[in-house]
Amino acid sequence: MSETISAAQGTLTTQQVVELTKKLNYGTWRFQKTWNPMHIADAEGCYFTDGAGKRYLDLSAQLMCVNLGHKNPAVIAAIAEQAEALAYASPAYATEARAELSQLLLEVLPEGLTKFFFTTSGTEANEAAFKIARMYTGKTKIIARYRSYHGSTMASIAATGDPRRWAMEPVGGKGQGFLFAPEVNCYKCPIKHTYPQCGIACAEYLEHMVRNESDVAAVIVEPVVGTNGVLVPPKEYMPMLRDICSRNGVLLIADEVMSGWGRTGEWFCVDNWGVKPDILVTAKGITSAYVPLGLCATTGEIAAYFDDHYFSHGHTYEAHPITLKPAVATIHEMQRLGLVQRAKRMGAYLEPKLRALQARHKSVGEVRGLGLFWALDLVKNRETKEPFNTMTDKVSGTVTVVDKVSGDMLKRGIAIQAWVSHLVIAPPLIVEEKDLDFAVEALDGALAVADAEVA
Fold first, then answer.
1. Would you call 2 exposed, middle or buried from its count of C-beta atoms within 10 A (0-12, 13-18, 19+)?
2. Which CATH number fits domain 73-337: 3.40.47.10, 3.30.160.140, 3.40.640.10, 3.20.20.450?
3. pLDDT digits over 260-319, tens only?
């Protein structure tokens, strides 16, 4: 009881913060026994500070979402102003924040996406997309891909290709009408082809699936796969996929929860190839993650269907005013600071430095990315491209090599996202060259941990 009282009074020690968190909260996607979370006490710009006062470069923008960096004053002010003006309204009502954001979205989203459903997460936005696709088409099946992640609620986790889905089965996957196509991974093609001679065989395989299934409503893809490796498709892939969906009467859903909002050097990742999806789902960077907001955007053609058909979806926090006003401020800040073009420019600065690391370290199999969205793929053997760890290792609790590398990076004052056998580099879009230099220098040292384990 005394610990609870002291928490209310703001007098907890760092040790108490960590112990209470471990004791009373679930740590996500992990075994609970080994969870020892760091106490983050403060954050500003591209850095955060732990309870002991040590600063860390936030090289993955927390979960690839704090695009504006920490403590942006305009976004903080928007939260406070909206809280004072109107803290909540039922989604049945119109609000100024809702109208203002909706109008602003027309300026930045890919052309043709003109009707919006607001949620409080990317997971919920994907759930909305699946329901809309099924209601609109009258079909049930949705094709996703392996090495994908679309969320943690029942339909979105069923659409997820990576092992986080396994705990939900047999309810997940096919039981909910989700099928899996090969991911795009030209470094290690799952169907043993070689680009560019392959003619984009992974896309052709997906079309084969569409034509051999009875009622495919939609195909959902992360245009650049996020957590599962920052897998960048060849330039032909997304236009081919758009054509395949159009020719076969299937909706194309772009999951831009992670890749949107300037991350790849364009407002949205599909803009890199001029592709216009039927539905676009996003979250994270829409408010720089200062408040939880997700978005499911559809074309006017889909929207028109619901003029005379019941729209069977909704929830209490849909279009919550306190989530919407900060999104307006975030977009204005991105425009004011020129962050979309800046991401492209800083990515061009970072890329050769990462490729130089690849040349120096035998554990780096591939470097890939766009804008300020990069991955270092670590391998045990460069010739065979065998990774140090597999997805099975991740869910079995094995301490992975990338975990060891990220732990070494933390000692050097840099926090980086590690997953299975790769590191994700996705700093706030306000990152400076000196910060990237610091990160590359630390990576140069920490990769020795992986080099030592090369076969």
1. exposed
2. 3.40.640.10
3. 999 999 999 999 999 999 999 999 999 999 999 999 999 999 999 999 999 999 999 999
